[in-house]
Write a structure and sequence with these properties.
The complex is a heterodimer. Chain A is α+β, with helices and mostly antiparallel strands. Chain A has 16 helices and 16 strands. Chain B has a five-stranded parallel sheet. Chain B has a two-stranded antiparallel sheet with strand order 1-4. A two-stranded antiparallel sheet of chain B has the order 2-3. The chains are: A alpha+beta, B alpha/beta.
Chain lengths: 496, 272
């Protein structure tokens, strides 16, 4: 892994630097604030993806008297990060096109910004409906509004989806997320690095490995330690097992939305088999409790794993072919929820969603980590950008994952599982992983006592939830559930 | 167009018959660690320092320290097992941790006497053959949802036991809650509870809903269901696996016995 390049950018230079980076084809990955010199002196960090296999850039920028110029007009995906910084760190952005709270629900106020170190913020809340005045009112009494949620039918995560519609046609869609905001980033404050790994696994349950991996890699970068090869290889195995059961779930769930009943049952059955494989190998169906700073906590049980994966590979090959030959199913997917390549890039789509829209980006290959550089990794890309392309992409990724794991198990090196990881006081690190849903970043800052001072989590669903509404506006109600299932979004990761 | 129905028929039955007989599907699970205080070293507090959710607490001075273990806070991370120098904590496969009273999750020398249930027999008579469940996510990490969704896959096939998820709280007998209860979801949770007809039950699924776990507290979160809605069954686990959820559901219906008393499963209780 190539270390990110850290540089200070003057406040006056920020707009110009951002514009020239974006013009040169760079994509801003995330922004966050932290407080290196006390509660009155925040610093904003911008993580910039300059290009494939070029090191990431990290810009540090000191705001003037609590404000920075907004970069949302140049690169719209930064808008959500700026609004989150305003909500949780109390910093304002000049000319922010949408200066409303993002992470705080309508009707919620905080006594003080909670991510300022050492403060105990109190939150008061009187529920208020989320409204879009321009969509309703007496002049538009033909537009119906449907607030759906936060408690929705079936076993689903909580969020409120607001539809403004005419008959079957959706005019506008606004997902009110962040009902599940738990203040996870604050919770890392003051923890030891080892306990932070336990917490990172519990930010987004179905991304436990990806979260623990990105977190641990951030710490390992801060400590400058070298993880032993066997642990690096086994980390790839865990990450691919996670990708496999997640993709199987989304394929089964997609069949649920198109009412392909046997296809749904088979997809979810294969997911169950995958989770049972996980459980036999590591003792946890969600693959928790192995990844830790410096390597792995214990040896997984690998006996029989290759044979089990091979059986799953054969069953899945048939399942994939049948899905791709089911015309009633495909009729509902093709041209549903089209995300154009440009929109995907500009708004920050990531993972299978962006790869299904023709963007050939994958952190496993482009910013390689763990043992991905040494393994034959295939990155699938589709051009159509619709629900069908996203299905095809997941089918290809499951096949590639199993192939990769089988190869890995044959060449797995021996040796130690872990090395000491002691980040020194005041150090910092950036870690990333390509989760089943896309790029995941952890930025970690260590305090004077060697404990966690600030942990920033950029989850892939935070990116994809921003993109998703663009494929819903001006579509129709019947396609909504299919489109949502094809995106494969989690709410826990986005809300944190 | 493939013949899915024929394909399904050819595949045969995938459902387990568990708990009547057969495979529970949980082989390999690392569950709640066993605790043996006789092996504790005086003055040692490594387990408590390694326990993120605070399930293990050490009280008392250097002489006569006492270790208290609350499995209602345990997230089965196995850190205590790894740091304990004397094997006072050992890994176990125990996951059927559903209990009716919160105190039963706290480790105790003598198991509390099995309390007589006021409704004994009634629940089974009214709901024993059919239970409708409304799930509310009150701020989980999505791990519990992943396992709840698994209940309807062909392997567990929850319908075979007469338990159904329902869309409306108006049709629900049981409110099944996950997550530590965030500020934003406290209101919707209470509304769902109010909307249910009597008699109604509440189950706290997952360590977050039982006690807040690793994620509760702070500026945006509560500490689980206690003090929010009355709870009939507590099921810790991070997440509880599908078989543990099935066991807790059957326990509520008095179709399965409670296995945990005083924070442990009695020796010889193999759950069959």
């Amino acid at each position: 892994m190539t270390a990110p390049v850290l540089e200070a950018v003057a406040r006056a230079d920020l707009l110009r630097r951002c514009r020239s980076a974006v013009d040169a084809g760079a994509r801003m990955q995330m922004a966050y604030a932290w407080f290196p010199d006390g509660p009155r002196n925040p610093e904003v960090r911008y993580v910039v993806y300059a290009g494939t296999r070029e090191p990431l850039q990290v810009w540090r920028c000191r705001p003037g008297p609590q404000t920075l110029p907004s970069l949302a007009a140049i690169t719209p995906l930064l808008s959500w990060y700026e609004r989150e910084i305003s909500d949780l760190c109390g910093l304002q952005f000049e000319d922010q096109p949408q200066p409303d709270p993002l992470v705080l629900l309508p009707g919620a106020t905080l006594s003080t910004p909670p991510l300022v170190p050492g403060v105990n913020a109190a939150l008061s809340y009187a529920a208020a409906p989320s409204t879009l005045p321009e969509m309703g009112g007496s002049t538009r009494d033909d537009v119906q509004s449907l607030p759906f949620g936060p408690v929705r039918a079936d076993v689903l995560e909580s969020a409120q989806f607001n539809f403004y519609y005419l008959g079957e046609a959706i005019l506008h869609y606004h997902p009110q997320l962040f009902f599940k905001h738990r203040g996870m980033e604050k919770r890392f404050e003051g923890l030891t690095p080892e306990l932070g790994a336990v917490l990172a696994e519990r930010v987004s349950g179905v991304g436990s490995v990806a979260h623990a991996l990105a977190y641990c890699r951030a710490l390992e970068a801060a400590a400058g330690c070298e993880v032993p090869p066997r642990a690096q290889w086994l980390r790839v195995l865990l990450a691919e097992l996670e990708r496999m059961y997640n993709h199987l779930h989304y394929l089964g769930h997609l069949c649920h939305t198109t009412t392909l009943k046997v296809g749904e049952a088979e997809g979810k059955y294969l997911e169950e088999l995958a989770k049972q494989i996980n459980c036999r190998a590591v003792g946890s169906r969600l693959l928790r409790g192995l990844v830790s700073p410096g390597g792995l906590r214990r040896e997984p049980q690998l006996t029989g794993l290759a044979a089990q994966l091979d059986r799953l590979r054969i069953e899945f090959a048939r399942y994939g072919l049948m899905l791709e030959a089911s015309t009633t199913h495909l009729d509902r997917l093709i041209t549903t929820g089209v995300l154009s390549r440009k929109l995907a890039f500009d708004q920050g789509a990531t993972g299978p969603v962006e790869r299904a829209s023709g963007l050939d980006r994958d952190l496993r290959r482009d910013q390689p980590y763990a043992a991905y550089r040494e393994l034959p990794l295939k990155v699938a890309v589709r051009e159509a950008g619709d629900a069908h392309a996203r299905q095809q992409l997941r089918i290809a990724e499951v096949e590639n994952s199993i192939e990769l794991m089988l190869e890995l198990l044959q060449r797995l090196p021996g040796g130690a599982l872990s090395t000491q990881c002691r980040p020194s006081s005041g150090s910092e690190g950036l870690g990333w992983s390509e989760s089943p849903r896309g790029s995941l970043y952890y930025a970690v800052h260590i305090d004077e006592a060697g404990r966690l001072a600030r942990v920033k989590i950029k989850s892939p669903s935070f990116s994809n939830w921003r993109v998703f509404p663009f494929t819903v506006h001006d579509s129709n109600m019947m396609d909504y559930a299919i489109n949502e299932a094809s995106f494969g979004l989690t709410i826990a990761g986005c809300d944190r | 167009m493939p013949l899915w129905t024929l394909y399904g028929l050819r595949q045969g039955k995938a459902s387990t018959r568990w708990p009547a007989s057969g495979d529970d599907g949980q082989s390999g699970t690392l569950g709640m660690p066993h605790f043996d205080p006789a092996k504790c070293q005086e003055g040692c507090r490594r387990c408590a320092d390694a326990c993120l959710p605070g399930a293990i607490t050490v009280t008392g001075a250097a002489h006569g320290t006492r270790v208290a273990v609350d499995y209602g806070r345990c997230v089965t991370c196995q850190m205590c097992v790894e740091v304990c120098p004397t094997n006072a904590f050992t890994a176990s496969g125990d996951w059927a941790f559903g209990v009716r009273r919160r105190e039963e999750l706290i480790w105790a020398h003598a198991a509390a006497t099995n309390d007589a249930q006021a409704l004994k027999g009634q629940i089974h008579r009214v709901f024993g053959r059919s239970l409708h469940v409304r799930h509310v996510d009150a701020g989980s990490c999505n791990g519990c949802e992943s396992e709840l969704q698994a209940l309807n896959n062909p392997f567990y096939n929850l319908h075979r036991l007469g338990v159904f998820f329902t869309a409306s709280p108006r049709f629900a007998d049981l409110l099944l809650v996950t997550g530590p209860v965030t500020y934003g979801l406290r209101g919707p949770l209470l509304e769902a509870y109010e909307a249910m007809p009597d008699p109604k039950f509440v189950m706290a699924v997952g360590t977050c809903a039982v006690s807040g776990g690793t994620n509760g507290g702070g500026y945006a979160c509560g500490n689980g269901l206690d003090g929010v809605v009355p709870v009939d069954v507590y099921l810790p686990g991070c997440p509880p696996n599908p078989a543990a959820i099935i066991h807790a559901l059957l326990m509520l219906l008095e179709r399965a016995p409670q296995r945990v008393h005083g924070g442990k499963i009695a020796a010889g209780d193999n759950g069959a």
